[in-house]
From TrEMBL:
Signal peptide: none
CDD domains the record matches: Mrs2_Mfm1p-like (cd12823)
Membrane disposition: Multi-pass membrane protein
Chain spans, region Disordered: 115-143
Location in or out of the cell: Membrane
Stated role: Magnesium transporter that may mediate the influx of magnesium.
Superkingdom: Eukaryota
GO molecular function, one term: magnesium ion transmembrane transporter activity
Protein name listed in UniProt: Magnesium transporter
Length: 305
């Protein structure tokens, strides 16, 4: 089956990833070339492929309940955000449990955002007669590093997921409080008590994601570790300068948050190997989003107390 049909099931997956039995995990491998492969492999095969240690892979084990983490390693980003457990390199993404209902939308968005450059150019040729809308020139995000496009998909997905769970709880809380106010009964008390417990647990989950982003933003060295393409290229800096600027203008989330003046300034920006401003802007945008979700939860909890 080709890319359009979804997944590829090779008899012998590339890169030495053989199918295993007990102790294996299910992954989808999404490459920069557009190829997708479903894998069932053990941890040693994964560690060998992406060059990470066992302690990094344990972070992605759902049975161990590790807190949210975005870790930069020499050749990979290890990402644990709730149900989104992934390993990102400069050329591919390994995402755990692709058949999970919560992961399927992430796979679809990765498929769309990580579309190969040649495919984007063909699409642009097909759409050349369509009117081009300002601030949304298709294909600009091809200038962005592969690992940052993948990271943005994960951040956007988890922030949207937690925001949706917050809205669901908020929608249930106010009627429950109204019912309790109008009539104090064991049934109404029990309902409010359960909702309060759910809010406490959700607040803790949101707080963990927020704290991880804040910690990352506070450390330039940690952010620099996420520049896999730059490290791969040695002394060159492919993710700084006009390419990075084009990416931010094209990003559906980040682009809308940047003023025209800021865009003009960014377009002329040039960076060195220690520059982390482009990644910092990406992380700050999602930090603000998750911080807003936390504030909403806090407000509801205060009304509940």
């Amino acid at each position: 089956m080709g890319r359009e049909s979804g997944y590829v099931f090779p008899a012998d997956p590339p890169g030495g990833l053989k199918k295993k039995g007990a102790g294996s995990w299910n992954w989808i491998l999404m490459q920069s070339s557009g190829q997708e492969i479903i894998l069932e492999v053990d941890k040693y095969a994964i560690m060998h492929r992406v060059k990470i240690h066992a302690r990094d892979l344990r972070i992605l084990d759902p049975l161990l309940s590790y807190p949210s983490a975005i870790l930069g390693r020499e050749k990979a980003i290890v990402l644990n955000l709730e149900h989104i457990k992934a390993i990102i390199t400069a050329e591919e993404v390994l995402l755990r449990d692709p058949s999970d209902d919560n992961i399927a939308p992430v796979v679809e968005e990765l498929r769309r955002r990580l579309k190969p450059v040649n495919d984007n150019r063909e699409d642009n040729e097909d759409d050349k007669d369509l009117a081009v809308q300002p601030d949304a020139e298709m294909g600009e995000e091809d200038d962005s590093p592969f690992e940052f496009r993948a990271l943005e998909v994960a951040l956007e997905a988890i922030c949207s997921y937690l925001a949706a769970r917050t809205i669901e709880l908020e929608t249930a809380v106010y009627p429950a409080l109204d019912m309790l106010t109008s009539k104090i009964s064991s049934r109404n008390l029990d309902r409010v008590r359960k909702l309060k417990s759910q809010m406490t647990r959700l607040t803790a989950r949101v707080q963990k994601v927020r704290d991880e982003l804040e910690q990352l933003l506070d450390d330039d060295d940690d952010m620099a570790d996420l520049y896999l393409s730059r490290k791969l290229a040695g002394t060159s800096s492919p993710v700084s300068g006009s390419g990075a600027a084009s990416w931010f203008l094209a990003s559906p989330t980040i682009g809308s948050k940047i003023s025209r003046a800021s865009r003009a300034s960014m377009a002329s920006m040039r960076g060195d190997d220690n520059d982390v401003e482009d990644l910092e802007m990406l992380l700050e945008a999602y930090f603000m989003q998750i911080d807003g979700t936390l504030n909403k939860l806090t407000t509801v909890c205060e009304l509940h107390s």
